[in-house]
Amino acid sequence: MTETPMERRSLLRPLAFVVLVFGVIWCTMIVRWRMANRVPNGTDVALYLVALPLGLLLGFVLLRKVIDATKKRRQKATQADVADADAAEPVTPEDPSLAWQLPIFAANVLFAGGDTPAALIDAARASQRAELHPTLRDGQGLPVFAVGVDDVDTAAIDDSLPDAAQGWSESRKRALVLAQTLATRVLDEHFDALRAADPSADMPLGRAKPRPVLQLEWLLPAHWSDADRDTAQAWLAAQLAAQGWSAPSLQVTVSGIGSGAAALKRLDDLNRAFHGDTPRLPHLLLASDSHIDEASIAEWDAAHRLHGASRPEGLVPGEGVCALLLAAKHPTGEVELARLHRLLAAQRAQPVDKPGRLQADTFNELVGQALERAKLEADAPAHLVSDTDMRASRSAEAMHLVEQALPERDPIETLLPLGIANGECGAALTLATVAVAAQLAVDTQQPGLILSHHDASLRAVAVVTPPAPATSTSTTPTLA
């Protein structure tokens, strides 16, 4: 059989290497012996010209085998590790709770900037700002920036207040009036339809037993004491009962809550609760707050918290109330206004109001995660509704976010900063961002974002989308 050229090369390579080793050693030893003027004997020839090259060749062969064996062991180990890793890392299914959505069926507001979500939208788009109050003054007698709701009559409730609330400040009484006013409006519009949807309504009057129809949860400022909140709860329950909305049909509870993201966190808790195994009543979430009186102005002035030319990071006293009807079938059979997705929150590495601060990407990262979780494109949001107020740091941060997240959009048209026209209103203002975003979802049939950065470091983001088409199958429970 004739050898191929490749086979001949494979035989010649080791032979050439052997000849090279012998040639190098022989030449080296001969040159050395001549330089030393030495005549080699038989031992020198056997040792240096035969044994030495053979020993080197044998050592090379052994070294090559050791290297090849080591490589093979490493390859086997690597393959085993890859196989183990593939077996040890199964595909983890996505947490289905991250896709839960909270249906919003009604949204009502009452603020200085307007008494409907549409009015708040118009005020924000018109760049309406808080102005100097006509009567409130600081310690130097100068007017302060403050915005209040017109025609709030606290004298009308003085006779109905219990003894424990008679000495309350004007701002606390205004928070009560605002809550009663908006709660009455919502119950007038929706309670009868909710009660009619109760199966017990079809029973004969003598056999029908009153059943819970709606739970009203009233969010009051966290700085109120538990005793004061309990007093307010008893007062509101009595006022509503006098109008025909009494227990057990209407269940009134009260909770203390801080500003900003705490209200969104409560909505996220309700989202998870409505998807639980235990059926829950339709929920009316109500939040009210007020800082419009001389005592609040004096307290804020003493603490250097009032907004002004010398304090651009100060707050503007305001007041307002917001109500959201959740997880209840609309009385006329209409689909819900919008759906609120799960909340995302994170802390800035550096407080936004710290001197020498830099604009952080915390908001931008949260927006990206929220859109990805909601399966929306990066440029999908048609509007951003925020609790941005007149503090310079908050305005700069909000504009920076719009420029980074939606560079092709006009920031003035895209961003709706509700706090600029309505001042500091606590959780009520944060809930109002949800009400406005829900209204915009109805008007535009496009998704939007809710942004909260009332706190210096905590940032919160949530997506609001139009309701799913009526023909699609929804996983959201209907609890009316």
TrEMBL record:
Keywords carried by this UniProt record: Membrane, Transmembrane, Transmembrane helix
Transmembrane domains' residue ranges: 12-33, 45-63
Record protein name field: Transmembrane protein
Organism: Rhodanobacter glycinis
